Amino acid sequence: MKKILITLLLFTAFTLNAQDYKQQLLNSQYIENYIEIKMANKADIEPLIAKYSVDEVKYNPEQNLYKAKIFLHQKDYQNFINENIPFQLLEIQDREVNVNMATTLGTFLSSWTLYPTYSVYEQLLDYFQSTFPERCKVDTILSQTPNSHKILAVHISNSLNTPQAKPRFFYSSTMHGDETCGYFLMLQLINYLLTHPTDTKVSQILEEIDLWICPLENPDGTYRVNNNDLGVNYSTRASYNGTDLNRHYPDAFADLGINYEPEIMAMLNFMGQKHFTMSANLHGGAELFNYIWDLYTSSNPNHQHPDQLWWNQTGRKFADTCHLYNANYFKGEDNGVTEGGDWYVITGSRQDCNNYHLRCREVTLETCNNKTPQNAQLNNLWNYIRRSLINYILEVKSGFNGIVTDSVTGIPLKAHVFINNYDKESEKSDLYTALPFGDYYRPIGAGNYSVTYSADSYISQTHILTVNADVAVRKDVQLVKIGTSISDYEHAVTIFPNPVENVMTLKLSDPTLLNADLMIYDVNGKMLYQKAIYEENTVINLSTFASGFYFMSLSKEGKTLISKKIIH
After folding, report:
1. Secondary structure class of 41 (helix, strand, coil)
2. Which helix (H) or strand (E) is 107 found in, with range?
3. Alpha carbon 396 to chain centroid distance?
4. Which residue has the higher pLDDT, 464 or 50?
5. What CATH number should be reported for the domain holding residue 524?
6. How many CB atoms lie within 10 A of CB 374?
7. CB count, 10 Å around CB of 30?
8. Nearest Cα to 132, choosing from 107, 105, 155, 162?
9. 461: how many CB neighbours lie within 10 A of its CB?
């Protein structure tokens, strides 16, 4: 009874004080404010999640109440007051403390303890590209945001100009413009990867992975007041349009065909084109590895993701590595690792969108309790998390991978890869190969898996794969086309000599093959030669071809009549 009475008194006092905060909120000089509400039932908070930027939900056992912290943008002040929910206006920490900025590129590079102005940020990415052109290229995700900034990404690889079949990984940061700890960490990571090419793990990333890093996903929020300052008095969580970007991505029930915020649309287009295998978005305000789903708790029987154990194990490695370099760092929630909805449920998160709609295995990394660490803390933070960030990129190579091609022509296929009695179509845990190479990558834990490969107009194949921890298994698959008539012409076409030195002769003994189109492909499915065949004997010069295997096909009206392998 005493505990109940204390709870009621506290809640009553909170309610009375909350009346005073309404006018303060409406009269606030700030574009955003942080408020706290208290509810007897967690379910009562959930309707607010779809309307406002709920940042944290915690149970207070002493008061037997749930506390929720919410970021409100100016445009939401009156709407929230109309909800008639008692609230407390919170003072944002360090309101009077500002950080130091680098106003020139030279100053930034000489110290690495300053935050860049927006101009210096753009100069820095140009510097990376011009200094390391063989392994660094700047891509533009969005050329002009609503407040005239750019969203940029750095592509890091040793094969920038010669695309190869590699797993693709994407880091991005500061979707919430006031969470600039990740912004600095990503700039440090780019610099480290480019300046340490002989480091064993860096060399492996450069050679075997296509990596993109977007240090600043919400430049309008970070440089909200001006382009020369950032931090609590200058940056906003929301975009220039007042939108919390990490609450407005299309979730599992949303339609990708409608218009979203320009930053979100640009990011979805970019990520969709790249076919990323894994990705992570960096935040601040906590220290933990947060994996899917954000929309559901892990106990939801209808939405338990098949990779839940793998996510937890991978997150555990990330957090434990951080603990080796600072035992007190990265200790949020369950010692640094949590399933998103178990922390608190949100809708419209990017990681849920990527996992569901793009089949890209994304996590959210909360990298620092302080959203904008003071300058003196920056290098320590980098040293605590650097190894985890690098190791996590290499996770993209775990599990099993390969290339799926046509069994006769060798042309890469867009194929479905499904783990039987494991993958769930409802959770979109399966995947598809990516063109132009027909490659696929499936990070997964150790075990035996029955995997079915299928494509339109092809006979499906099922293979048993044994995966060991931290050792990737390669499985290339050649699918056979349904109802092919290639065998009808098998003896009507002769190639000699084969192997070919410089020239070969194509001889046709069936007149129905005349006027067919001859095409020659390399092993990656790239067409290197095309010619219409009008004679029974045709000489073809291959002297400019590199030594190796090639595939030749004859087709009419889009139908392949014959395919053969050529050795040169």
Report:
1. coil
2. helix 105-111
3. 11
4. 464
5. 2.60.40.10
6. 14
7. 15
8. 155
9. 16
pTM assigned to the model? 0.82
Q: In the 3-class helix/strand/coil scheme, how is 206-230 assigned residue by residue?
A: HHHCEEEEECCCCHHHHCCCCCCCC
Q: Is residue 439 part of a domain?
A: yes
Total domain count for the chain? 4
Assess if residue 142 is contained within a domain: yes
In a domain, 407, yes or no: no
Give the β-pairing of 447-454 and 416-419: antiparallel
What pLDDT band is residue 4 in, cutting at 50, 70 and 90? Answer: very low
Asked whether residue 190 is assigned to any structural domain, the reply reads yes
In tens, the pLDDT along 391-417 reads 999 999 999 999 999 887 788 999 999
Number of neighbouring beta carbons within 10 Å of residue 516: 23
Q: Which residues pair with 517 in a beta bridge?
A: 532, 555
> Which domain range does residue 420 map to?
414-468+477-481
Sorted by sequence, the CB contacts under 8 Å of residue 383 that are 6+ apart come out as: 325
Radius of gyration of the chain (CA): 28
Give the ranges where 358-437 is alpha helix by DSSP (H). 378-394
CATH number, domain containing residue 438: 2.60.40.1120
State the greatest distance between any 2 C-alpha atoms of the chain, in Å, as a whole number: 101
Tell me the HSE value of 425 on the side-chain side, using a 13 A CA sphere: 2
Q: How far is CA 184 from the centre of its chain?
A: 19
Enter the tokens of residue 139.
Answer: 């891509």
544, HSE (Cβ side, Cα atoms, 13 Å): 4
Backbone φ, ψ for residue 184 (5° rounding): -65, -40
Length of the chain equals 568
Q: Record the tokens describing residue 356, joined without a space.
A: 């569901």
Q: Determine the 3-state secondary structure of 520 from DSSP.
A: strand
Cβ-contact 452, 420 below 8 angstroms: yes
Phi then psi dihedrals of residue 376, to 5 deg: -70, -20
**pLDDT at position 93:** 58
